[in-house]
Design a protein that fits this description.
The relative contact order is 0.14. The protein has 14 helices and 17 strands. The protein is globular. The protein folds into 2 domains: 3-169, NAD(P)-binding Rossmann-like Domain (Rossmann fold, 3-Layer(aba) Sandwich), CATH 3.40.50.720; 174-408 and 429-484, Dihydrodipicolinate Reductase, domain 2. By secondary structure, it is α/β, with parallel strands linked by helices. It is an enzyme of class 1 (oxidoreductase). It holds the Pfam family G6PD_N.
Length: 485
């Protein structure tokens, strides 16, 4: 199958830091279909040779274990081409259309690795140039909009040009191998399904923690914040995969229908519940790995007195028969104690303990990063008698050891799926809009607090797990975050 993969924003940070290395890995693994061309478009004047040299220099900044040899890169570079293009000029779109038609690839994938505010104008111009034929797909990077209204407007324009199956809204967390194993865990094994409900599960925790700060992206991050950057998309997508009902088939729409049902079942927020169940924080100066780091307000390009949140913790519930009464705790933040993304399923304790220490409940830990695996935490007797005390033990599955061959990364998988037209791991527009609909009352409540009372996020020291009130949020239900148990 021949294909053209076009990157708008071909010299941008996302393209060279994430997308090109992922494509190289697909090429190295022999997964990239033969007969492909990778075409980068951007405003600067460059030749193909200049662009290949630019990517070669950028590759020197990626993970050393994934860097190509000179011979490998030379073969990969044959696929790379460059075209100067001004995204505001209709004639440049017509020229791109002529270039693509001349080659006549079976599939054309247009990847918009640009600022989301450009998505509408790019899609409108693509439509006018005829670059919306059935064999064309467009990939839209997050964040898709700033709020519900902007997301709906972007989707309105995109749908006026492309069909729903042509528009692929990407969330790279869905491409992580551990997330794929979450689906396998639930729907390919009979072991957990009888337990996957309120009668057996006490609470579920989703943590997406980063030890890094905002770096040089302070201006971008200050317009976004942790709620928009991580909760509205990544965390909610993980929640839907944990809580969804088994789909009737493996078809993309069957899966996305069930995820949408979960989003619609989330308890809606009110001003009162936002005050009670949502906590925001902002990191102050502290220590990470023994090194002092600045507070958020001292980072580059962050405006003085910013109220942008770098930490969010919240409590919600899925209001349906399977999950009624089970708290779901979501937490994300920058400059936290560790880089750690995981889902912790806390099971209920046994109803009548006969062993000392049997009040400790079992846990299933789904590790997303930096480790990739599953850990089942159990209790075992130290001796053989009924009166013996129990000790915690773990069944720990490391997927990198279980599958010793090099595994497919998130962007690598998603790029290959975009070329092949596999839609399962892409977010449908109604899912995305429902997620915005759910978080918007939080944004509105914070806006009112700022305008009426000047209230902002709580401070927390870099290198900790966020504001102390985050522990109180969970303790109110008699629970604790996983690192505190």
């Amino acid at each position: 199958m021949s294909f053209d993969l076009v990157f708008f924003g071909g010299t941008g940070d996302l393209t060279w830091r994430k997308l090109m290395p992922a494509l190289f890995q697909a090429f190295r693994h022999g997964k990239l279909p033969a007969g492909g061309r990778i075409l980068a478009v951007a405003r600067e004047e460059r030749s193909d040779a200049d662009y290949r040299q630019f990517i070669a220099e950028r590759f020197a900044e990626v993970d050393r274990s994934k860097q190509p040899s000179a011979e490998e890169f030379a073969r990969f570079a044959e696929l790379l081409h460059y075209r100067r293009m001004d995204l505001a000029q209709p004639d440049d779109y017509a020229g791109l259309a002529d270039c693509l038609r001349e080659r006549g690839a079976d599939t054309v994938v247009l990847y918009l690795a640009t600022s989301p505010h450009l998505f509408p104008v790019i899609c409108e111009q693509l439509g006018r140039a005829g670059l919306n034929a059935p064999h064309v797909r467009v990939v839209l990077e997050k964040p898709l909009g700033h709020d519900l209204a902007s997301a709906q407007e972007i989707n309105r324009v995109v749908r006026s040009v492309f069909t729903e199956n042509q528009a692929l809204r990407i969330d790279h967390y869905l491409g992580k191998p551990s997330v794929q194993n979450l689906s396998a865990l639930r729907f390919a094994n009979a072991l957990f399904e009888p337990l996957w409900r309120r009668e057996s599960i006490a609470n579920i925790q989703i943590t997406l923690a980063e030890s890094l700060g905002v770096g040089t992206r302070g201006d971008f991050y200050d317009r976004t914040g942790a709620l928009r950057d991580m909760i509205q998309n990544h965390a909610l997508q993980l929640l839907t995969m944990i809580a969804m009902e088994p789909p009737a088939t493996g078809d993309a729409d069957a899966i996305r229908d069930e995820k949408l049902k979960v989003l619609k079942s989330l308890r809606p927020f009110t001003p009162e519940s936002v005050a009670r169940d949502v906590l925001r924080g902002q990191y102050r100066a502290g220590n990470i790995g023994g090194q002092p780091v600045p507070g958020y307000l001292d980072e580059q390009k962050v405006p003085p007195g910013s109220h942008c949140e770098t930490f969010v913790a919240l409590r919600t519930e899925v209001q349906n028969w399977r999950w009624a009464g089970v708290p779901f705790y979501l937490r994300t933040g920058k400059r936290l104690a560790a880089r750690d993304a995981q889902i912790v399923v806390n099971f209920r304790p046994v109803p009548h303990p006969i062993f000392p220490g049997a009040h400790r409940a079992n846990q299933l830990v789904i590790k997303l990063q930096p480790e990739d695996g599953l850990e089942l935490r159990l209790l075992a007797a130290k001796g053989s008698g009924v009166g013996e005390s129990l000790a915690p033990v773990s069944l720990d599955l490391d997927f990198d050891r279980a599958f010793p061959s090099e595994r497919v990364g998130a962007y690598e998988r998603l790029l290959l799926d975009a070329i092949a037209g596999r839609l399962n791991l892409f977010v449908r527009s109604d899912e995305q809009e429902q997620a915005w609909r759910w978080v918007e009352p939080i944004l509105d409540a914070w806006s009112r607090e700022r305008e009426q009372h000047g209230e902002g996020p709580r401070g927390y020291a870099a290198g900790t797990w966020g504001p102390a009130a985050a522990s109180a949020l969970v303790a109110r239900d008699g629970n604790a975050w996983s690192e505190e148990q």
